[in-house]
C-alpha cells in the first residue's frame, strides 16, 4: 500500500493505482471525458490533469500511477483554467444543439460545460461538418458531436473484440469511422453507444422517444437467452423507449444487439399475451390455469397409455438457465423420461 | 609507384537530383573510351559517395590523382570529357571548374564526426567502410562487458540527437538494468521536420555507421532484435540501408553469433507511412506494432515497457552514428568537443536565406554567428538577417540581436528555442514572422494525430487566429489570446508534438511583437509578405507607360494609354504581384 496526499487529504491505495482511482476512492471528484474504468487508460481529453509536487507540468491522473508520498492537487486555479480552456476548445467544434439532442440531460460534456460555466467561448472557427449518413439499422452516428474520446474504439476492441471502428485522418480532420467510411456493419452490440459521453452515438430506435429526465428506469432480466443479462428498461408512458444495463451487474453493463435493441416486440400488436388452445383446428384464447390443466391431464393420459418415453420435451434458449434446469428435472423426475432437448443444440 | 586515381561523385538524394547518375555514367563511359580501366579497386576507382554537405553546388566531383585532390562543382555530363582530357590524362586540373574559396570556408569551421566518412566512402560497399576503420568499434565492443560500454558512452557525455537531448548512456543503463526475456533497440529514422535532412544524409552517406552503432547498443543493453523505423519517402536511404544490412550479415557483423562472440542480433527495416507524429517514440512503437501511429502517456517509458511491452531503447540516427567513433577514439576525445553539458558535435541542416545552404557538423557551443556568417557565408543578396529558426516546428526563432549566443542544448533553451533534430532556417528582412509562425502551425496542425484535445483543436484555433491576423482581420486582444492558448496547449498536450507546437508562435511573439501589432492595428505587413495586407500602386514619377504591367495583370486591374501613366484599380487588384515583377522601371510600389 502507498500513502499519498490529494488536496491535503491522506489517501492510502495499493501500488499501481492511478491518481484518478486514488482520488475517486477518497470521493475527490476529477472531471473526465475519455476515461472508463473497464477500458485501457487513454489520456486523450486531458480534463483529468492534476498538479503533482515536483513535476513541472500537469499530469493526467487517469494514466499516472501513484507514488509514495506523492502530493497531488486537483483543483488549483491554473488547473481549473486549463480545464476550462479544453472545454472551450471542445465546444468550439461542437454543434451545441443541446435543445434537440437526444443526450441532453445525460451528457457528460453538457454537464462539464455547465459546471465550468462555459458560456462565452473565446474560440471560434471552423467546425467539422459531415453530410454523409450511416444507413445501418441500429446505431445513429452523428460524428459532428464526437469529441474523439476514443471510448467506442476501445470498447469495440477490448471488450467486444471486434475492432469495427478506429480513428481515420489526422489533425482537426481526425474522425472515428468504420473502414473506408462505409456504413457500420458490425455485430451492433451497441457497447459503443453505451460508453459514448455525448450524443454522437445513439440508438436509432430511441430517436425522439424521450430523454433521460422523462423516463422511469425498471431493472429486469433479459428474456433472450440463458445468460440472463441484467437490463434496465427506460420507460416513458408505459412504453419502453430505450434499454441499457448497469455497470455493477453480472454482465458488467455490456449487452448484445438483441438485449439492447431488440425490445420493440414488447409493444407489438401481434404478440401472444395468453395461451391458445386449439379446438377443431381453431386457436382460442385461454387462461394459464386452463391451459396448464389441459397439459397436465394430457401428459398423464399419454404416459399411462404409452409409457413415459412416448413423451419428449423441447425447451427454449430464451429461458433462463434455472428454467431450463427445472424443465429437464421435470421431464426426468416427474414424467420419467430422458427425452429432453433444447433448441440451442439444433 | 603506380599511379592511382580515384573519382568520387556525390550521389546522395541531392547529388542524384542534380544529375549525379548521368555524370557518373559519362565518367565510366569516357574512361573506358580512353582505355583507362576504372574498375581496379585502390589503383583506379570511380565510386559514388554520400552527401558532403554543400548540396547547393552539386554535382560535386572529387578527382584524386596520385594523392592530389581536386573538387569540382556544378558538374554536368558535358563537362566530363574535358576533366578527363586535361586532368586525368594530362595531369592539369581544370581550375575554372574547381570549387572556390567559399567551399573551403564552408568546411573550415566544421568538425566532422558523424559526417567524417560521408562524401569519402562508398556507401554501397562495406569494404569501403571497413577500410576507413569501420566495424572495429563493434569488434572492440563484443570483447568489452556491457557495463564497460555503457560507462564509456556515459563518460563521453553523448546526448540524444533527436531533440530531447536525453543522455544516451543513461538510457542504455536503465534498459540494461530492467529484467526481461526480450529487449529491443530501435533506430528512429523518421525524420520529419520541414527542411531537415540530417538523418537521411547520414544513412545515404554511411549506413554502416548506423548499423554498427546500433549493434554496439544492442550488445550493451542485451537486445537481440532491432528495428530501423525509416520514412518510406527516403527510398535511396532505404535501399542503401537494406544493402548495408545484407552486407553486414554476410560478414557476421549481424545475425547469429556476431564475430564469434555468441551474441545474436539482427535488424529489420520498418517503413513509416509519412506521419510526423511517428517520430514520437510511443507513436513509433505503436506504428511498428501495426497500430495507428498515436502516442500514449508516459510513464511507463519505453526503456521499461516499449515495443510489444518489452524494454526498448530508441535512439536517433545521428546518436547511433556517433557511437562507433566514441568506442574507437575514446570518451575523452568525444568529450573534448562541445560545452560542459552539451558534448560532441551536432549536424544541422542549414537552409533559408543563406548563401551556403547545406548540411553542416559543428562542435556544440559554437557561436550562432559563426555558423551563419563563416560557414554559411552570410545572407543571400546582402540582405539583413532577421532571425534564425532552429528546431523545426517544435523550435523557435532566435532574433538577429541574439546571434552571439552559443549553439548547445542549454543556451538555445534559454532563449526559447531548441536544438531539436537540427533544422536551422535563416530568415531575412523579407520574411514575415507572423507568416513563419503560421507556416509551422499549418504543419503541426495537419500532422497532429488527433488524440488529445489541445493539440487537435487548440493548434487549429491558433492557426485560425494567425490566419485572420495575416489576412488583415486581426482583432485587438488576439496576441494575448494566442499567448494564453499557446501556453495552455504546451502545458496540457499529451506528447511532444503538442507540447512544442506552440513554440514558433510564442517565440515570434516574444521577439517580434511589433510585427504582430502592425498586422493587427495598422493592417500592414512590415516585410511585405502577407498578400491581403499589401496594396500595389503605380508610382507616377517612374512610370513610362510601357504597358508591361497591364499585359501581365491577370485581373485586368491596370488601365492606361501607351506612354501615359498607368493606374491600378485597388478594387479589382488580386495582389498577385505580377506587375511588380514585370515593371522594368521600379514604377510599381508595394506596401
Write a structural description.
The complex is a heterodimer of chains A (346) and B (591). In chain A, 24% of the residues lie in helices and 18% in strands. With 346 residues, chain A is α+β, with helices and mostly antiparallel strands. Among the domains of chain A are: 2-75, Ubiquitin-like (UB roll) (Roll); 307-346, no CATH class. Chain A has a five-stranded mixed sheet with strand order 2-1-5-3-4, with helices on one face. A three-stranded antiparallel sheet of chain A has the order 10-11-12. Chain B starts with a strand and ends with a strand. The model of chain B has no long low-confidence stretch (mean pLDDT 92). Chain B has 23 helices and 20 strands. In chain B, the strands form six sheets. A five-stranded mixed sheet of chain B has the order 2-3-1-4-5. A five-stranded mixed sheet of chain B has the order 11-10-16-13-14, with helices on both faces. The interface between A and B is medium-sized, with 36 and 33 residues.
Question: Characteristics of this structure?
Answer:
heterodimer, A: 346 residues, alpha+beta, Ubiquitin-like (UB roll), five-stranded mixed β-sheet, three-stranded antiparallel β-sheet, 8 helices, 24% helix, elongated, B: 591 residues, alpha/beta, Glutaredoxin, Rossmann fold, 5 domains, 20 strands, 16% strand
Amino acid at each position: 500500500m502507498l500513502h499519498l496526499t490529494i488536496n491535503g487529504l491522506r489517501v492510502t491505495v495499493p501500488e499501481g493505482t492511478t491518481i484518478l482511482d486514488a482520488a475517486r476512492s477518497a470521493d475527490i471528484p476529477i472531471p473526465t471525458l475519455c476515461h472508463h474504468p473497464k477500458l485501457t487508460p487513454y489520456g486523450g481529453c486531458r480534463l483529468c490533469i492534476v498538479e503533482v509536487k515536483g513535476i513541472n507540468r500537469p499530469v493526467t491522473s487517469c494514466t499516472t500511477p501513484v507514488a509514495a508520498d506523492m502530493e497531488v492537487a486537483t483543483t488549483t486555479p491554473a488547473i481549473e483554467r486549463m480545464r476550462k480552456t479544453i472545454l472551450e476548445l471542445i465546444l468550439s467544434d461542437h454543434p451545441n444543439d443541446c435543445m434537440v439532442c437526444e443526450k441532453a440531460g445525460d451528457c457528460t460534456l453538457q454537464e462539464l460545460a455547465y459546471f465550468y460555466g462555459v458560456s462565452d467561448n473565446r474560440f471560434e472557427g471552423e467546425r467539422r461538418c459531415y453530410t454523409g449518413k450511416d444507413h445501418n439499422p441500429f446505431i445513429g452516428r452523428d460524428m459532428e458531436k464526437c469529441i474523439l474520446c476514443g471510448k467506442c474504439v476501445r470498447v469495440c476492441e477490448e471488450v467486444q473484440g471486434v475492432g469495427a471502428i478506429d480513428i481515420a485522418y489526422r489533425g482537426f480532420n481526425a474522425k472515428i469511422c468504420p473502414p473506408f467510411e462505409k456504413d457500420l456493419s458490425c455485430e451492433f452490440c451497441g457497447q459503443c453507444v453505451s460508453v459514448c459521453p455525448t450524443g454522437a452515438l445513439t440508438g436509432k430506435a430511441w430517436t425522439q422517444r424521450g430523454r433521460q429526465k422523462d423516463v422511469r428506469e425498471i431493472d429486469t432480466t433479459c428474456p433472450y437467452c440463458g445468460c440472463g443479462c441484467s437490463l434496465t428498461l427506460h420507460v416513458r408512458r408505459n412504453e419502453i423507449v430505450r434499454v441499457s444495463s448497469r455497470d455493477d451487474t453480472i454482465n458488467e453493463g455490456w449487452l448484445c444487439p438483441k438485449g439492447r435493441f431488440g425490445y420493440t416486440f414488447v409493444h407489438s400488436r401481434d404478440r401472444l399475451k395468453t395461451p391458445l388452445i386449439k379446438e377443431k383446428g381453431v386457436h382460442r384464447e385461454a387462461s394459464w390455469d386452463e391451459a396448464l390443466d389441459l397439459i397436465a391431464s394430457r401428459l398423464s393420459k399419454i404416459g399411462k397409455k404409452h409409457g413415459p418415453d412416448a413423451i419428449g420435451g423441447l425447451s427454449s434458449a430464451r429461458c433462463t438457465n434455472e428454467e431450463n434446469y427445472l424443465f429437464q428435472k421435470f421431464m426426468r423426475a416427474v414424467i420419467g423420461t430422458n427425452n429432453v432437448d433444447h433448441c440451442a443444440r439444433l | 609507384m603506380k599511379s592511382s586515381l580515384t573519382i568520387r561523385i556525390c550521389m546522395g538524394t541531392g547529388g542524384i537530383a542534380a544529375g549525379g547518375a548521368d555524370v557518373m555514367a559519362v565518367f565510366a563511359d569516357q574512361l573506358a573510351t580512353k582505355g583507362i580501366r576504372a574498375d581496379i579497386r585502390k589503383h583506379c576507382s570511380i565510386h559514388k559517395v554520400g552527401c558532403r554537405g554543400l548540396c547547393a553546388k552539386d554535382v560535386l566531383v572529387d578527382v584524386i590523382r596520385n594523392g592530389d585532390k581536386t573538387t569540382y562543382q556544378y558538374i554536368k555530363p558535358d563537362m566530363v570529357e574535358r576533366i578527363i582530357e586535361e586532368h586525368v590524362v594530362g595531369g592539369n586540373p581544370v581550375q575554372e571548374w574547381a570549387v572556390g574559396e567559399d567551399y573551403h570556408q564552408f568546411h573550415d569551421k566544421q568538425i566532422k564526426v558523424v559526417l567524417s566518412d560521408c562524401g569519402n566512402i562508398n556507401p554501397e560497399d562495406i569494404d569501403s567502410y571497413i577500410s576507413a576503420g569501420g566495424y572495429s568499434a563493434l569488434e572492440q565492443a563484443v570483447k568489452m562487458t556491457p557495463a564497460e560500454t555503457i560507462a564509456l558512452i556515459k563518460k563521453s557525455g553523448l546526448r540524444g540527437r533527436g531533440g530531447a537531448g536525453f543522455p544516451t548512456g543513461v538510457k542504455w543503463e536503465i534498459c540494461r538494468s530492467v529484467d526481461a526475456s526480450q529487449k529491443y533497440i530501435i533506430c528512429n529514422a523518421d525524420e520529419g521536420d520541414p527542411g531537415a535532412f540530417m538523418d537521411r544524409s547520414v544513412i545515404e552517406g554511411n549506413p554502416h555507421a548506423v548499423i554498427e552503432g546500433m549493434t554496439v547498443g544492442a550488445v550493451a543493453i542485451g537486445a537481440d532484435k532491432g528495428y530501423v523505423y525509416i520514412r518510406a519517402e527516403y527510398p535511396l536511404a532505404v535501399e542503401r540501408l537494406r544493402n548495408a544490412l545484407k552486407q553486414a550479415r554476410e560478414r557476421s557483423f549481424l545475425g547469429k553469433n556476431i564475430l564469434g562472440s555468441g551474441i545474436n542480433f539482427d535488424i529489420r527495416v520498418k517503413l513509416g507511412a509519412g506521419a510526423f507524429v511517428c517520430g514520437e517514440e510511443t507513436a513509433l512503437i505503436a506504428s511498428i506494432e501495426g497500430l495507428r501511429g498515436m502516442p500514449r502517456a508516459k510513464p511507463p517509458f519505453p526503456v521499461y515497457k516499449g515495443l510489444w511491452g518489452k524494454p526498448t531503447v530508441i535512439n536517433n540516427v545521428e546518436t547511433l552514428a556517433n557511437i562507433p567513433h566514441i568506442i574507437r577514439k575514446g570518451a575523452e576525445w568525444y568529450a573534448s568537443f562541445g560545452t560542459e553539458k552539451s558534448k560532441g558535435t551536432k549536424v544541422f541542416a542549414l537552409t533559408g536565406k543563406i548563401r551556403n545552404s547545406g548540411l553542416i557538423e559543428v562542435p556544440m557551443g559554437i557561436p550562432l554567428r559563426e555558423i551563419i556568417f563563416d560557414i554559411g557565408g552570410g545572407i543571400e543578396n546582402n540582405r539583413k538577417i532577421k532571425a534564425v529558426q532552429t528546431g523545426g516546428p517544435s523550435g523557435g526563432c532566435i532574433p538577429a540581436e541574439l546571434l552571439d549566443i552559443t549553439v548547445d542544448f542549454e543556451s538555445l533553451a534559454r532563449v526559447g528555442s531548441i536544438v531539436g533534430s537540427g533544422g536551422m532556417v535563416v530568415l531575412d528582412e523579407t520574411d514575415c514572422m507572423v507568416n513563419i509562425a503560421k507556416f509551422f502551425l499549418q504543419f503541426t496542425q495537419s500532422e497532429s494525430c488527433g488524440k488529445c484535445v489541445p493539440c487537435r483543436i487548440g493548434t487549429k484555433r491558433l492557426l485560425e487566429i494567425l490566419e485572420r491576423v495575416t489576412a488583415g482581420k486581426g482583432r485587438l486582444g488576439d496576441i494575448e489570446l494566442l499567448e494564453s492558448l499557446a501556453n495552455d496547449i504546451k502545458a496540457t498536450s499529451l506528447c511532444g508534438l503538442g507540447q512544442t507546437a506552440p513554440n514558433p508562435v510564442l517565440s515570434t511573439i516574444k521577439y517580434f511583437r511589433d510585427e504582430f501589432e502592425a498586422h493587427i492595428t495598422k493592417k500592414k505587413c512590415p516585410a511585405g509578405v502577407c498578400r491581403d495586407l499589401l496594396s500595389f500602386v503605380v508610382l507616377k514619377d517612374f512610370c513610362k507607360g510601357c504597358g508591361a504591367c497591364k499585359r501581365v495583370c491577370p485581373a485586368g486591374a491596370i488601365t492606361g494609354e501607351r506612354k501615359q501613366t498607368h493606374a491600378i484599380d485597388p478594387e479589382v487588384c488580386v495582389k498577385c504581384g505580377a506587375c511588380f515583377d514585370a515593371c522594368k522601371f521600379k514604377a510599381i510600389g508595394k506596401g
